[in-house]
Write a structure and sequence with these properties.
Elements lengths: L37 E6 L9 H12 L4 E6 L6 H6 L3 E8 L6 E5 L15 H12 L4 E8 L12 H21 L2 H16 L2
Parallel strand pairs: 1-2, 1-3, 3-5
Antiparallel strand pairs: 4-5
Helix pairs in contact: 1-4
């Protein structure tokens, strides 16, 4: 087992989700009039080697011009992203991981109300929690963490190992979007989470 930078334990081969949303909760998955478009929200610093894996995946995904996908990138997640998230029923967060299983990890993201002292930078679960608090919506969300290796130093080139992981991750994202916007994998992860809760 490996822990992601966002505190989620999972792997590409055996994904293990975070806490699933209880079916009894009456929150909408998107704001009134929310688009069916999947929001891909990637972040990282393209000038810090493998830390740019998220934005690079977003750049290559945008070049594929897939229907039903909105792509946004940034150096970090921020409070301002909460409105954007609220306008979509499904969100895919993408970031680089400095440790964990290869080539990538996938996890369901559950909202958290624990915000950092500074809200200039948020984690996916904190951003979802803020979105829920401000807009009373809870989009379905997944985190894709792509394994990187070189993070100290400057440069726009990815390490060869990170490039291989990126290609595998890109094909995964492409195939899931074409198959229906991650609904299938979300359902599988959610069922595994519920099964785990029943065994406790």
């Amino acid at each position: 087992m490996s822990e992601t930078q966002d505190g989620m334990v999972t792997s590409a081969k055996k994904p293990q989700p975070g806490r699933a949303t209880p079916a009894s909760e009456k929150l909408r998955t998107g704001a009134k009039g929310a688009t069916d478009t999947v929001l891909v929200l990637a972040w990282g610093n393209p000038s810090r080697l493998d830390d740019g894996l998220g934005p690079e995946l977003a750049r290559r995904l945008e070049a594929l011009d897939l229907p039903g996908v909105k792509i946004e990138t940034g150096f970090q997640l921020s409070v301002e992203d909460s409105w954007l998230v609220s306008q979509h029923a499904r969100v895919l967060f993408v970031d680089a991981l400095s440790e964990g299983d290869e080539p990538y990890m996938v996890a369901v993201v559950a909202p958290s109300r624990k915000l950092p002292f500074s809200t200039h930078s948020l984690k996916p679960d904190g951003l979802l929690g803020l979105t829920e608090e401000l807009f009373q919506v809870r989009p379905k969300a997944l985190l894709l963490g792509i394994r990187g290796y070189l993070f100290s130093g400057f440069g726009s080139e990815l390490s060869p190992e990170a490039e291989r992981n990126l290609l595998t991750s890109l094909e995964f994202v492409r195939s899931q979007l074409l198959a229906g916007g991650f609904d299938g994998i979300f359902s599988k992860l959610e069922c595994r989470s519920e099964a785990g809760d029943d065994q406790k």
